[in-house]
Amino acid sequence: MSRALPPLIAPGTVQRVTTKLADTLALGGYPPEVIPAETRAIATNPQIPQLELDREARVARARGPWTAPALGAVARRLPPAEPRSGGWRLDLSAVSRLDSAGALLLASVRERLGGAALAGAHPAHEALLGIVAEHDRPPARPPRRPRGLEALGRRTVKAAGEGMRFLDFVGDVSVESAGRLARPGRVRWRQVVHEIERAGVTALPITGLLAFLMGIVMAYQGGTTLAAYGASIYLVDLIGITMARELGPLLAAIIVAGRTGSAYAAQIGTMRLTEELDALRSLGITPTEMLILPKLLALVVSLPLLALWSGGAGVLGGMLVAERFHGISVVTFLERLPDAVPAGMYWAGLAKAPVFAVLITLVGCHQGMSVSGSAESVGAATTQAVVQSIFLVIVADAIFSIAYQQIGL
Predict the structure, then answer these.
(1) pLDDT tens, 71-82?
(2) H or E stretch covering 328
(3) Lowest CB count within 10 Å: 112, 310, 342, 398, which one?
């Protein structure tokens, strides 16, 4: 009874050994005649990618399918880098198939051979090699980050450029707005009313609430100190002057800058990204006519009223705390308030509000017009609009304080 014996050599072993031997001999530059006939038969197997180097003729010949599933053996035995650059040719006339992995490997071979010239390549293969060479570049080095004085200088130049662009924008808006204000019939008053509702009426709750709470805080902090000196009655002067002249307009301006100025930048920036501004210009309508001037007029009207509203809410909060904790009745508070805060104080505070409104509107619209690229720039413009608006409002308030001091107000 015969019994099948297990094979002494696993199937495929001979083929793998002869393939490796053929690759080693070929890559080592041995002439084809030293390769055994069986090995040459396997080495020239059309199903296996081959790379043969002829150092005398300085030709590298690629054969077979250079595709990802069959590249493992070739990738592990690439030729070493040639010390002498130039003079090599990479013959691809016998390459049957080529994919992106094979193209990357051939690009590596070309680089190791000092930039070998292509020869006999199929047009499709040559095009794929060109695409790989175009995208197979080392990543660009990150730009060097400036430090010290260089960083300060760059920031100064950037801020100066931003300031010049803002002044240019203000000049353009001023020239066009002056022409339209000289003929009130050319102003879009319906749009102005709509903006007053958005910027003024809808801001009443938040402005009043914050001013009311601010008045309570001031009455608590100031009343305790004044009571220690037996001067609680002067709490009326403290709250009245502070809220009417300083905190009322300033608090309203800061809230409007964060709420409305950012909305202006986001609206105009989004319209710029979606090319709606270009569409308006194609119809003969400028952004100043349609967007900027109505917003400017609306905020110039709304912000003084919001300042008056927030000042009154702050005085109300302080009056309630004074009546509850410092023994100053509401009647006494209201009787002393006109003497403590003359009408000039109110007007001095309200006079600042239109200036704040102009600054907030121009900064918000300028940041919106500066948007370019992607939606990310809209967010950056919104943030810049809020920061720059609040900064300029505080600077303007400081200038007003110095000016009022100089003229005796």
Answers:
(1) 776 766 666 666
(2) none
(3) 398
